[in-house]
Design brief:
This protein is α+β, with helices and mostly antiparallel strands. It folds into three domains: 159 residues, DNA ligase i, domain 1; 256 residues, DNA ligase/mRNA capping enzyme (D-amino Acid Aminotransferase, Chain A, domain 1, 2-Layer Sandwich); 126 residues, Beta Barrel (OB fold (Dihydrolipoamide Acetyltransferase, E2P)). It is built from 20 helices and 23 strands. The strands form four sheets. Strands 3, 4, 5, 6, 7, 8, 9, 10 and 11 form a nine-stranded mixed sheet that branches. Strands 15, 16, 17, 18, 19, 20 and 23 form a seven-stranded antiparallel sheet that branches. Strand 21 and strand 22 form a beta hairpin. It is globular, with a radius of gyration of 25 Å. The N and C termini lie far apart (54 Å). The chain binds adenosine monophosphate (AMP). The site of adenosine monophosphate has 10 residues, from strand 2.
């Protein structure tokens, strides 16, 4: 472990990527394959490979207490050290004493201890094992053990650089290493395959989440179509992103944070087990309102309906008919009651029905499809979901029914669980504008505009997928501090200070009184109290983990916050439990909004 920690120190000291890769490669080569494999996982900032769902469940607060106990430092001393370092691992490295020990603490030993922590039952037992591990580590080793446990090394090393280092150290092209890591979901195993010169043998292993392809914001229909002339366009649904792995009778669903969420949506696996072949699907889970069988809407507003002539919906568009199942996605707030639950009652499933709007396929026909064009993937998805089973359905956008989706005569309202997201082909800004209005009329956030020729690039935010949302700017920010409210909010933490990302750090940009519901505030108060880093009396500095979406009217230059900006009329649109702090918006994005507003 000492050698790994020393390598990490060297890696942290340089900002040059190539040098970082060289240091990682040198370190990995100096170890046995077993040790190098475990180290590759640790260097990616995690205790276990991606494909394993094991979690340590040892949080910052617990580690803080252990560091306090082992160092004998007072709360005030530790707080002062933390404020200086901004990282509990670094604090541990500064304050922990040298342990009495004979012999080395190897990375294999540390990995073993991690597994013991996972197996230990209850927080106290887990904390005791974590304490035992840290008590045997030197301060430098402890520094990196704490960083691995908290999931962030903060040495400017991403998994992609570890992949480069493996290719450099053991041969195999970078593309082969990346491919194997993606297929296996295990960078340690990938390393061993590189050592054995067997990278080509890696076979897709389902049930570990692949990275999600992300979208960049587009400011207008014209700007969106400046990137590609012909576009595939879908509604932008306001729910949670979900990747479904389906094989044989087994189905597992993963969130954008790569957590398994199958248990929260027990109605989906039943439908997905019926797929004709193994597949990985990408889509959005939304709260769904089935209108059931309805009469046609009154007023005959057909002429206003956004129906560009070239808009091809999967499944031919048919005139509206009485007695057809219809439905629409509900706003995110409706879905919230369904999130984060381990057990979902029948009653809740009926109260808040969900639908999985599927818009992409990453694996089918025994092959990873990421390099295929979107157009090809769409065709494969159509074939996969078009299988004659009523519960996987393709809605039609019928004229006169713009506030909802309609389904074929063979679909009953209760069958709309897994739905093929309708796709439009668009080539002019006017068509896009029409679709935007129609999507909003259906209660959706806006549009996703996609390049038909693009590959699926996991984890990357490129210009192949664009999102066109409501005009008002919003930022995804991280809560850094919270304060007790006033009036009816006295006793609850309802005022949040939040930050955007600036390189490796967070810079505060604004403060908002919560726009959340009382129940959410109560829940967040509990969370913040459990994740307080520093208690300043009325103000608590909290672990920067909670992502919010904030809207505001405009931005001003100001010294009030570190970012150099302040927001006018900031309001919290919603919590973003589907996003990690590293997904929050950056200062560059704030600059862009500021400049655009100036124009
Ligand atoms: P944002 O969360 O604002 O960055 O927007 C991107 C997110 O929109 C994705 O991660 C999905 O969760 C969601 N989304 C909704 N509808 C779609 C769609 N049709 N295609 C892709 N992503 C979608």
């Amino acid at each position: 472990m000492m050698k790994l920690a020393e390598a990490c120190e060297r890696i942290a000291c340089t900002t040059k990527k190539l040098e970082k890769v060289r240091f990682v490669a040198e370190y990995l080569k100096s170890r046995t394959p077993e040790e190098a494999a475990v180290s590759a996982v640790f260097l990616s900032g995690r205790p276990f490979p991606v494909r394993e769902e094991a979690t340590l469940q040892v949080g910052g607060r617990v580690l803080w207490r252990i560091v306090a106990e082992l160092s004998g430092k007072s709360e005030a001393e530790l707080t002062a050290a933390y404020r200086q370092r901004g990282d509990l691992g670094a604090v541990a490295g500064d304050v922990l004493p040298e342990p009495p020990r004979d012999g080395d603490l190897s990375v294999l030993h540390v990995e073993n201890k991690f597994r013991e922590i996972v197996a230990a039952r209850g927080p106290a037992a887990k904390a005791a094992r974590a304490r035992e591990l840290l008590s045997k580590a030197t301060p430098l080793e402890a520094k990196y053990i704490v960083k691995i446990v908290t999931g962030d090394l903060r040495i400017g090393l991403k998994e992609s650089l570890v992949e480069e280092a493996i290719s450099k150290a053991f041969g195999g092209t970078l593309a082969e290493v990346q491919r194997s890591n993606m297929l296996l979901g295990d960078i340690g195993e990938t390393l061993k395959m590189a050592v054995a010169n067997k990278l080509g043998d890696a076979k897709m292993r389902l049930f570990h989440p692949l990275g999600f392809m992300l979208a960049s914001p587009a400011e207008s229909a014209e700007q969106a179509l400046s990137y590609f002339q012909n576009a595939l366009v879908e509604d932008k649904y306001d729910g949670i992103r979900a990747q479904a792995h389906c094989s044989g009778g087994e189905v597992r669903i993963f969130s954008r944070t790569r957590d398994e969420i199958t248990e929260s949506f027990p109605e989906l696996p039943d439908v997905l087990t019926g797929l004709p072949e193994d597949a990985i699907l990408d889509g959005e889970i939304v709260a769904w309102s089935s209108d059931g069988r309805e009469d046609p809407p009154e007023g005959g507003s057909e002429s206003k309906v956004a129906q560009p002539s070239s808009a091809a919906v999967v499944g031919a568009s048919r005139p509206h008919a009485v007695g057809r199942a219809a439905g629409r996605a509900l706003p995110f707030s409706a879905l919230q009651q369904r999130l984060g639950r381990k057990q979902v009652s029948e009653k809740l499933m009926q109260q808040v029905p969900v639908a999985y709007m599927v818009f992409d396929v990453l694996y089918a026909e025994g092959e990873l499809l990421l390099e295929r064009t979107l157009l090809e993937r769409e065709r494969i998805l159509d074939a996969l979901l078009g299988a004659p089973r009523k519960s996987r359905v393709v809605p039609r956008i019928a004229s006169g029914a713009q506030t909802r989706f309609e389904f074929g005569d063979d679909v009953s309202a209760s069958n709309t669980r897994v739905i093929r997201a309708p796709v439009f082909h668009v080539s002019t800004p006017q068509e896009l504008d029409h679709l935007f209005e129609a999507a909003q009329a259906r209660g959706n956030e806006g549009l996703m505009i996609k390049d038909p020729e693009s590959a699926y690039t996991p984890g990357r935010r490129g210009k192949s997928w664009l999102k066109l949302k409501r005009e008002l700017a919003t930022l995804d920010v991280v809560v850094t501090a919270v304060e007790y409210g006033h009036g009816k909010r006295i006793g609850v933490l309802s005022d949040y200070t939040f930050a955007v990302r600036d390189g490796g750090k967070l810079v505060n940009i604004g403060k908002a009184y919560s726009g959340l519901t009382d129940i959410e505030i109560a829940r967040m108060t509990k969370w913040f109290l459990e994740h307080t880093i520093e208690d300043q009396g009325l103000r608590l500095i909290v672990e920067p983990k909670i992502v919010l979406e904030v809207a505001f009217n405009n931005m001003m230059r100001s010294d009030r916050h570190e970012s150099g900006y302040a927001l006018r009329f900031p309001r919290i649109v919603r919590l973003r439990p589907d996003k990690l702090p590293q997904d929050a918006d950056t200062i560059e994005r704030a600059n862009e909004i500021y400049e655009k507003q100036g124009k």
